[in-house]
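## retry 2 of 3
previous attempt timed out at serialization; input unchanged, resubmitting
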Amino acid sequence: MTGHHANTSITRRRALAVTGATVAAGGLAVAGYQSAFADETTGAAGTAATASATSASGSTCMTLMTSVTEGPYYLDGALVRKDITEGKSGVPLTLRLTVVDATDGCTPVPGAAVEIWHCDAWGYYSGYTTANPGGSAPAESEDGSTADDATYLRGYQIANANGVVKFETIFPGWYTPRTCHIHVKVHTGGEKEDGTYEGGKVNYTGQFFFDDEIAQEVFALEPYSRHTGSYTTLDDDMVYDGGGAASGLLTLKAVKKGNPARGYKGFLTLGIDPDAENTGAGSGNGGGGGGEGGTPPSGEPPTDSPSDVSASGS
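## retry succeeded, writing output
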Protein backbone atom coordinates (compact mmCIF):
# COMPACT_ATOMS: atom_id res chain seq x y z
CA MET A 1 0.00 0.00 0.00
CA THR A 2 1.23 3.48 -0.78
CA GLY A 3 0.52 6.65 1.16
CA HIS A 4 -0.07 10.23 0.01
CA HIS A 5 2.30 12.68 1.67
CA ALA A 6 -0.61 14.63 3.11
CA ASN A 7 -1.90 11.55 4.94
CA THR A 8 -1.19 11.85 8.66
CA SER A 9 -2.11 8.26 9.49
CA ILE A 10 1.06 6.57 8.22
CA THR A 11 2.14 3.91 10.71
CA ARG A 12 5.48 4.43 12.42
CA ARG A 13 7.84 1.56 11.61
CA ARG A 14 8.92 0.40 15.06
CA ALA A 15 10.51 3.80 15.82
CA LEU A 16 13.89 2.45 14.73
CA ALA A 17 15.05 5.55 12.92
CA VAL A 18 14.61 8.35 15.43
CA THR A 19 16.45 7.35 18.60
CA GLY A 20 19.14 5.06 19.91
CA ALA A 21 16.57 2.27 19.60
CA THR A 22 18.48 1.25 16.50
CA VAL A 23 20.27 -1.13 18.90
CA ALA A 24 17.58 -3.63 17.92
CA ALA A 25 19.07 -3.88 14.45
CA GLY A 26 22.36 -5.32 15.69
CA GLY A 27 25.41 -3.98 17.52
CA LEU A 28 26.65 -2.16 14.44
CA ALA A 29 23.87 0.37 14.84
CA VAL A 30 24.79 1.06 18.47
CA ALA A 31 28.46 1.52 17.73
CA GLY A 32 27.66 3.74 14.76
CA TYR A 33 25.27 5.92 16.71
CA GLN A 34 27.82 6.45 19.47
CA SER A 35 30.68 7.06 17.04
CA ALA A 36 28.60 9.62 15.20
CA PHE A 37 27.98 11.59 18.37
CA ALA A 38 31.52 11.12 19.72
CA ASP A 39 32.51 14.71 19.00
CA GLU A 40 29.42 15.93 20.88
CA THR A 41 30.04 13.79 23.99
CA THR A 42 32.55 14.70 26.66
CA GLY A 43 33.60 13.73 30.16
CA ALA A 44 32.90 10.59 32.18
CA ALA A 45 29.40 10.21 30.75
CA GLY A 46 30.79 10.10 27.22
CA THR A 47 33.43 7.55 28.19
CA ALA A 48 30.81 5.33 29.84
CA ALA A 49 28.53 5.55 26.81
CA THR A 50 31.36 4.57 24.49
CA ALA A 51 32.24 1.60 26.67
CA SER A 52 28.58 0.56 26.74
CA ALA A 53 28.26 0.75 22.97
CA THR A 54 31.45 -1.26 22.48
CA SER A 55 30.25 -3.91 24.88
CA ALA A 56 26.82 -4.02 23.27
CA SER A 57 28.24 -4.64 19.83
CA GLY A 58 30.13 -7.76 20.92
CA SER A 59 29.67 -10.76 18.68
CA THR A 60 26.96 -9.06 16.61
CA CYS A 61 29.73 -6.99 15.11
CA MET A 62 30.16 -9.77 12.58
CA THR A 63 26.77 -8.86 11.09
CA LEU A 64 27.26 -7.13 7.74
CA MET A 65 25.00 -4.43 6.39
CA THR A 66 22.51 -5.62 3.78
CA SER A 67 23.84 -5.15 0.23
CA VAL A 68 21.44 -4.28 -2.58
CA THR A 69 21.65 -3.41 -6.25
CA GLU A 70 23.01 0.01 -7.22
CA GLY A 71 19.92 0.77 -9.32
CA PRO A 72 19.84 2.44 -12.74
CA TYR A 73 20.81 5.99 -11.68
CA TYR A 74 24.48 5.37 -10.85
CA LEU A 75 27.13 7.47 -12.62
CA ASP A 76 30.92 7.12 -12.49
CA GLY A 77 33.16 10.04 -11.67
CA ALA A 78 31.44 11.67 -8.70
CA LEU A 79 33.51 14.41 -7.07
CA VAL A 80 35.27 14.12 -3.71
CA ARG A 81 33.53 16.80 -1.65
CA LYS A 82 31.64 17.31 1.59
CA ASP A 83 28.80 19.52 0.29
CA ILE A 84 27.01 17.89 -2.64
CA THR A 85 23.98 20.21 -2.89
CA GLU A 86 25.25 22.60 -5.61
CA GLY A 87 22.47 25.03 -4.65
CA LYS A 88 19.63 22.50 -4.81
CA SER A 89 16.91 23.62 -2.41
CA GLY A 90 15.49 21.41 0.30
CA VAL A 91 15.57 20.59 4.01
CA PRO A 92 19.22 20.45 5.14
CA LEU A 93 20.59 16.99 5.93
CA THR A 94 23.97 16.26 7.48
CA LEU A 95 25.09 12.66 7.16
CA ARG A 96 27.73 11.30 9.52
CA LEU A 97 28.68 7.75 8.56
CA THR A 98 31.16 5.38 10.20
CA VAL A 99 32.83 2.62 8.18
CA VAL A 100 33.95 -0.40 10.21
CA ASP A 101 35.45 -3.78 9.44
CA ALA A 102 32.71 -6.19 10.50
CA THR A 103 35.13 -9.14 10.18
CA ASP A 104 37.61 -7.65 12.66
CA GLY A 105 35.74 -6.51 15.75
CA CYS A 106 34.16 -3.43 14.15
CA THR A 107 37.50 -1.64 13.89
CA PRO A 108 37.44 1.59 11.84
CA VAL A 109 38.41 1.48 8.17
CA PRO A 110 40.41 4.69 7.61
CA GLY A 111 40.80 5.72 3.99
CA ALA A 112 37.58 4.02 2.88
CA ALA A 113 35.79 6.10 0.24
CA VAL A 114 32.07 6.51 0.84
CA GLU A 115 30.10 7.50 -2.26
CA ILE A 116 26.48 8.65 -2.13
CA TRP A 117 23.89 9.81 -4.66
CA HIS A 118 20.21 10.63 -4.41
CA CYS A 119 17.34 12.54 -6.03
CA ASP A 120 16.42 16.17 -5.46
CA ALA A 121 13.30 17.48 -3.70
CA TRP A 122 11.11 16.68 -6.72
CA GLY A 123 12.50 13.21 -7.40
CA TYR A 124 15.04 13.99 -10.13
CA TYR A 125 18.60 12.59 -10.34
CA SER A 126 21.50 14.43 -11.92
CA GLY A 127 22.26 12.84 -15.27
CA TYR A 128 18.60 11.82 -15.67
CA THR A 129 16.78 15.12 -15.31
CA THR A 130 13.94 14.30 -17.71
CA ALA A 131 13.06 10.94 -16.13
CA ASN A 132 9.51 11.28 -14.84
CA PRO A 133 9.36 10.93 -11.01
CA GLY A 134 5.67 10.01 -11.08
CA GLY A 135 2.71 11.95 -9.79
CA SER A 136 2.78 15.62 -10.69
CA ALA A 137 5.94 17.70 -10.33
CA PRO A 138 7.48 20.73 -12.03
CA ALA A 139 10.17 20.02 -14.60
CA GLU A 140 13.61 19.77 -12.98
CA SER A 141 14.73 22.85 -14.91
CA GLU A 142 12.20 24.98 -13.00
CA ASP A 143 14.00 24.71 -9.65
CA GLY A 144 15.98 27.89 -10.29
CA SER A 145 19.28 26.54 -8.97
CA THR A 146 22.66 26.78 -10.64
CA ALA A 147 23.33 23.07 -10.06
CA ASP A 148 25.22 21.11 -12.71
CA ASP A 149 22.68 18.67 -14.14
CA ALA A 150 25.39 16.01 -14.43
CA THR A 151 26.78 16.16 -10.89
CA TYR A 152 24.36 17.52 -8.28
CA LEU A 153 23.65 15.44 -5.17
CA ARG A 154 26.51 13.03 -5.87
CA GLY A 155 29.86 12.81 -4.11
CA TYR A 156 32.62 10.97 -2.26
CA GLN A 157 34.19 11.48 1.12
CA ILE A 158 37.31 9.71 2.43
CA ALA A 159 37.06 8.22 5.92
CA ASN A 160 39.30 9.68 8.65
CA ALA A 161 41.30 7.68 11.19
CA ASN A 162 38.05 6.81 13.00
CA GLY A 163 36.38 5.59 9.82
CA VAL A 164 34.06 8.61 9.79
CA VAL A 165 32.84 10.65 6.82
CA LYS A 166 30.46 13.61 6.78
CA PHE A 167 28.26 14.93 3.98
CA GLU A 168 26.18 18.09 3.70
CA THR A 169 23.16 17.55 1.46
CA ILE A 170 19.36 17.88 1.43
CA PHE A 171 16.61 15.49 2.47
CA PRO A 172 15.80 13.50 -0.69
CA GLY A 173 12.41 13.67 -2.32
CA TRP A 174 10.54 10.65 -3.66
CA TYR A 175 9.59 9.07 -6.95
CA THR A 176 7.35 6.22 -8.04
CA PRO A 177 7.61 3.37 -7.06
CA ARG A 178 10.27 3.87 -4.37
CA THR A 179 10.32 5.13 -0.81
CA CYS A 180 12.62 8.03 0.15
CA HIS A 181 16.24 6.79 0.04
CA ILE A 182 19.91 7.54 -0.60
CA HIS A 183 22.27 5.23 -2.50
CA VAL A 184 25.72 4.40 -1.13
CA LYS A 185 28.86 2.53 -2.12
CA VAL A 186 31.93 1.94 0.05
CA HIS A 187 35.24 1.64 -1.83
CA THR A 188 38.67 0.63 -0.54
CA GLY A 189 42.12 0.38 -2.10
CA GLY A 190 41.82 3.34 -4.45
CA GLU A 191 42.90 6.97 -4.19
CA LYS A 192 41.76 10.49 -4.91
CA GLU A 193 42.74 11.56 -8.40
CA ASP A 194 41.63 14.55 -10.51
CA GLY A 195 38.94 15.46 -8.01
CA THR A 196 37.32 12.03 -7.93
CA TYR A 197 38.19 8.55 -6.60
CA GLU A 198 39.96 6.02 -8.79
CA GLY A 199 40.93 2.35 -8.48
CA GLY A 200 40.36 -0.09 -5.68
CA LYS A 201 37.16 -2.07 -5.37
CA VAL A 202 33.61 -1.68 -4.13
CA ASN A 203 33.10 -3.58 -0.87
CA TYR A 204 29.53 -2.58 -0.19
CA THR A 205 26.55 -1.27 -2.16
CA GLY A 206 23.42 -0.26 -0.34
CA GLN A 207 20.77 2.33 0.41
CA PHE A 208 19.81 4.53 3.36
CA PHE A 209 16.18 4.89 4.39
CA PHE A 210 14.09 7.41 6.33
CA ASP A 211 11.39 7.14 8.97
CA ASP A 212 7.96 7.52 7.34
CA GLU A 213 6.65 10.12 9.79
CA ILE A 214 9.69 12.35 9.38
CA ALA A 215 9.49 12.03 5.59
CA GLN A 216 5.80 12.97 5.73
CA GLU A 217 6.61 16.17 7.64
CA VAL A 218 9.36 17.12 5.21
CA PHE A 219 7.28 16.46 2.10
CA ALA A 220 4.64 18.89 3.35
CA LEU A 221 7.20 21.71 3.08
CA GLU A 222 8.39 23.73 0.09
CA PRO A 223 9.78 22.78 -2.37
CA TYR A 224 8.78 19.14 -1.75
CA SER A 225 5.07 19.96 -1.60
CA ARG A 226 5.09 20.93 -5.28
CA HIS A 227 5.50 17.23 -6.08
CA THR A 228 2.09 15.70 -5.47
CA GLY A 229 0.86 12.13 -5.71
CA SER A 230 1.40 8.90 -3.80
CA TYR A 231 4.74 7.73 -2.48
CA THR A 232 5.76 4.32 -1.20
CA THR A 233 6.17 3.81 2.54
CA LEU A 234 8.84 1.62 4.12
CA ASP A 235 6.47 -1.30 4.57
CA ASP A 236 5.80 -1.47 0.85
CA ASP A 237 9.18 -0.57 -0.60
CA MET A 238 10.69 -3.12 -2.98
CA VAL A 239 14.19 -2.74 -1.48
CA TYR A 240 13.90 -2.04 2.25
CA ASP A 241 13.48 -5.39 4.01
CA GLY A 242 12.46 -4.25 7.48
CA GLY A 243 15.83 -4.92 9.11
CA GLY A 244 16.22 -1.50 10.73
CA ALA A 245 19.72 -0.05 10.85
CA ALA A 246 21.23 -3.27 9.52
CA SER A 247 19.17 -2.65 6.38
CA GLY A 248 20.11 1.02 6.11
CA LEU A 249 17.52 2.77 8.27
CA LEU A 250 19.12 6.02 9.41
CA THR A 251 19.09 7.34 12.95
CA LEU A 252 17.76 10.89 12.57
CA LYS A 253 18.12 13.83 14.93
CA ALA A 254 16.25 17.10 14.31
CA VAL A 255 18.39 20.23 14.29
CA LYS A 256 15.52 22.00 16.05
CA LYS A 257 12.78 19.90 17.63
CA GLY A 258 9.35 20.66 16.22
CA ASN A 259 10.75 22.52 13.20
CA PRO A 260 11.56 20.08 10.38
CA ALA A 261 12.48 22.93 8.05
CA ARG A 262 15.67 23.48 10.08
CA GLY A 263 16.94 20.10 8.98
CA TYR A 264 18.20 16.79 10.32
CA LYS A 265 21.39 14.96 11.18
CA GLY A 266 21.54 11.35 10.02
CA PHE A 267 23.81 8.67 11.46
CA LEU A 268 24.66 5.09 10.57
CA THR A 269 27.53 2.60 10.77
CA LEU A 270 28.42 0.70 7.62
CA GLY A 271 29.83 -2.71 8.49
CA ILE A 272 31.86 -4.03 5.57
CA ASP A 273 34.15 -6.91 4.68
CA PRO A 274 37.26 -5.23 3.18
CA ASP A 275 38.12 -8.44 1.31
CA ALA A 276 34.72 -8.76 -0.33
CA GLU A 277 33.49 -7.11 -3.51
CA ASN A 278 29.90 -6.08 -4.15
CA THR A 279 29.38 -3.59 -6.94
CA GLY A 280 25.60 -3.93 -6.88
CA ALA A 281 25.58 -4.05 -10.68
CA GLY A 282 22.88 -6.04 -12.42
CA SER A 283 19.37 -6.74 -11.26
CA GLY A 284 17.46 -9.11 -9.07
CA ASN A 285 18.77 -10.94 -6.04
CA GLY A 286 22.12 -11.55 -7.68
CA GLY A 287 22.93 -7.94 -6.84
CA GLY A 288 22.04 -8.38 -3.21
CA GLY A 289 18.26 -8.34 -3.43
CA GLY A 290 15.84 -5.52 -3.82
CA GLY A 291 14.22 -6.25 -7.16
CA GLU A 292 15.49 -3.08 -8.80
CA GLY A 293 17.96 -2.63 -11.58
CA GLY A 294 17.96 -2.53 -15.35
CA THR A 295 17.74 0.46 -17.66
CA PRO A 296 17.19 3.95 -16.23
CA PRO A 297 13.66 5.27 -16.66
CA SER A 298 13.26 7.74 -19.48
CA GLY A 299 10.64 10.16 -20.70
CA GLU A 300 9.57 13.75 -20.82
CA PRO A 301 9.31 15.99 -17.74
CA PRO A 302 6.09 15.27 -15.83
CA THR A 303 2.83 17.06 -16.52
CA ASP A 304 -0.09 17.88 -14.26
CA SER A 305 -1.57 14.42 -14.76
CA PRO A 306 -0.32 11.46 -12.69
CA SER A 307 1.77 8.92 -14.56
CA ASP A 308 3.23 5.53 -13.81
CA VAL A 309 6.88 4.64 -13.75
CA SER A 310 8.15 1.12 -14.34
CA ALA A 311 8.96 -0.88 -11.21
CA SER A 312 12.53 -1.09 -12.45
CA GLY A 313 13.20 2.35 -10.93
CA SER A 314 16.09 2.72 -8.50
